[in-house]
C-alpha cells in the first residue's frame, strides 16, 4: 500500500508508541494482558496507516468537466449565496468524507489559482450545512481558460484538525494535481456557476479525481 507524504510523521510516531506500549506491557509477564493490549492496539495502528493511503489512479483530464475533488458522499446540491468571493448566487455541490475515505483532495478543473484564503473556525460535524461558513476552512478559486471561475472550499470536521492546501495564487494547475489533504474526517464544497449541468445525486458515493460531478 502506497502512503501519502502527509502521513509519514504521524505514522512513524504511531508505530513508535505502539511498539513502546507493547514492549512495556510485555515486561509484566502477564500473557493474557499482553495479548489483550496487542489485539486492542493493533487495529488502531492499522486504521491510522490506512487513513493515509495514497491509491494509484489514472486521471483522465477533461477541460469542460468538473472532477470530484474528494472521495465521499454527495451531501448537498443546491443554489446558495457564496459570500466570501463571488458574493452572488452559485450552485453548491458538497462531498462529505468519513474517516474511512481517502482524504487526498484533487484539483477539480484546470486553470490558474486566482484566490486563496485560510480561515480559522470551529470543528462541528462537517456534514452540517453551517460548517461551510463556521468551521475552519480553506478557500481556493481556479479560473479556467475561458474565464469561468470555480471555488473549492476544504472544510475541517469534528475530528479533523488540520487542512493542508498546496495551491498558491498564480499557480497553473491541472486535474492531475493534488489540491491538498484534510486529516480525519471532513468535507469539500464546490461553488459553480448557476445552470451548470450536474451529473450526480444526493447520497451518491463519488471517487476523487474520477467521478465527473458536473459539466460546462
Structural account:
The chain has 2 domains: 47 residues; 151 residues, Glucose Permease (Domain IIA) (Distorted Sandwich), CATH 2.70.70. Helices cover 20% and strands 35% of the residues. It is built from 3 helices and 14 strands. The strands form 3 sheets. An 8-stranded antiparallel sheet has the order 9-5-6-7-11-3-2-13. Strands 1-14-12 form a 3-stranded antiparallel sheet, with no helix packed on it. It starts with 7 loop residues before the first helix and ends with a strand.
Short description:
This protein is α+β, with helices and mostly antiparallel strands and 216 residues long. It is 20% helix and 35% strand.
The radius of gyration computed from the alpha-carbon positions, rounded to a whole number of angstroms, is 20 Å
User: What is the assigned CATH homologous superfamily of the largest domain?
Assistant: Glucose Permease (Domain IIA)
Average pLDDT reading: 90
What would CATH call the architecture of the largest domain?
Distorted Sandwich
Q: Determine and state the CATH class of the largest domain.
A: Mainly Beta
- Please report the total strand number as a whole number: 14
Intertermini distance: 36 Å
What order do the strands of the largest sheet run in, or round the barrel if closed? 9-5-6-7-11-3-2-13
Count of DSSP-assigned helices: 3
Structural class by sheet pairing and helices: alpha+beta
**Portion of residues within helices:** 10-25%
Amino acid at each position: 500500500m502506497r502512503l501519502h507524504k502527509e502521513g509519514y510523521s504521524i505514522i512513524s510516531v504511531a508505530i513508535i508508541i505502539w511498539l513502546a506500549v507493547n514492549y512495556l506491557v510485555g515486561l509484566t509477564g502477564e500473557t493474557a494482558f499482553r495479548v489483550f493490549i496487542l489485539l486492542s492496539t493493533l487495529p488502531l495502528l492499522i486504521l491510522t496507516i490506512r487513513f493515509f493511503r495514497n491509491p494509484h489512479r489514472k486521471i483522465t483530464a477533461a477541460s469542460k468537466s468538473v472532477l470530484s475533488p474528494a472521495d465521499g458522499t454527495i451531501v448537498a446540491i443546491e443554489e446558495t449565496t457564496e459570500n466570501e468571493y463571488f458574493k452572488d448566487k452559485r450552485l453548491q455541490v458538497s462531498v462529505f468524507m468519513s474517516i474511512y475515505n481517502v482524504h487526498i483532495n484533487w484539483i477539480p478543473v484546470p486553470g490558474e489559482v486566482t484566490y486563496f484564503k485560510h480561515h480559522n473556525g470551529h470543528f462541528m460535524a462537517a456534514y452540517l450545512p453551517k460548517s461551510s461558513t463556521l468551521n475552519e476552512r480553506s478557500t481556493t478559486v481556479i479560473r479556467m481558460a475561458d474565464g469561468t471561475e470555480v471555488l473549492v472550499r476544504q472544510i475541517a470536521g469534528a475530528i479533523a484538525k488540520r487542512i493542508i492546501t498546496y495551491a498558491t495564487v498564480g499557480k497553473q494547475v491541472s486535474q492531475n494535481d493534488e489540491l491538498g489533504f484534510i486529516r480525519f474526517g471532513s468535507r469539500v464544497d464546490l461553488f459553480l456557476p448557476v445552470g451548470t449541468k450536474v451529473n450526480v445525486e444526493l447520497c451518491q458515493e463519488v471517487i476523487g479525481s474520477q467521478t465527473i460531478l458536473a459539466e460546462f
